[in-house]
Amino acid sequence: MTCGEPRKSSCRPHRLIWRKAFSGAQKAQAAKPAANHPSSIPSAARVLPTDYPDKELISPFPVPLLIIGSKYDVFQDFDSDKKKLIAQMLRFVAHSYAASLIFTSIKSVSLMSKTKTYFSHLAFDLDRVKTVSTDLTKPLIIPAGSDSFSQIGSPCTTDVDITSLHAKNPKDLWKKIWERVFPQESIREQQDLKDPAKDPQYKEPQIDAMRAQKDQELEQYKRNAAKTWQGMHLET
């Protein structure tokens, strides 16, 4: 998630739509007769320690999950109130799914190293980063199980009257506050993007330039091939 660009759809923590798909698949598998899948993998909730914070209030993701807040170099220059709200929101989402949370930036060798260490921990069960940081003056580094709703606190915002939002539950409350404080530049949840490579959200000038060049070469090849086939047809 791009924590340095809160108004873009890439930083909408509540849009964990892919979780619904994963959860739906898991429910479908669980609905089958036990004999058909005797070795099915148990859900993450079954392996949480008994003393896991807020265990009865969270919905653990089926597999270990790491949420990464990118562009920390941009985020650190934000207004302190907005930084606190973004940090609170990401902490709330991470804790709700028993996930780890880390802020990083490609401009920081140290942060990238810690992020890679987390990847190694999740992929190969190696030792994870033991550091815990909830200080807003520093990048957030919060391993799963190191946070709690009481530590996260209520949404820190004076711009929104929480009572006027009529939220159905805590997740809905955070979602509505986020959209009120950070109006999204584009909401494309229902839009089916035909070519993800052209998504402006993931622009990479050098790669895009190479892609455009290859596209031109491909079109030229198609035209030349068409002319060749036409010539062969006329000869026969």
Description of the molecule:
One of its GO terms (biological process) is intraciliary transport involved in cilium assembly. Keywords: Cell projection, Cilium, Cilium biogenesis/degradation, Cytoplasm, Cytoskeleton, Developmental protein, Dynein, Microtubule, Motor protein. Belongs to the dynein light intermediate chain family. It comes from Takifugu bimaculatus. GO terms for molecular function: dynein heavy chain binding. The chain has 236 residues and is mainly α. The protein has a domain at 66-154. Helices cover 42% and strands 4% of the residues. The chain has helices at residues 17-31, 72-75, 80-96, 109-124, 149-152, 170-181, 205-235; strands at residues 66-69, 100-103, 141-142. It has a three-stranded mixed sheet, sandwiched between helices. The longest helix is centred in the last third of the chain and has 31 residues, at 205-235. It is elongated, with a radius of gyration of 23 Å. The termini are far apart. Residues 38-46 have low confidence and may be disordered.
What's this model, at a glance?
This protein is mostly helical and 236 residues long. Helices cover 42% and strands 4% of the residues. It has a domain at 66-154.
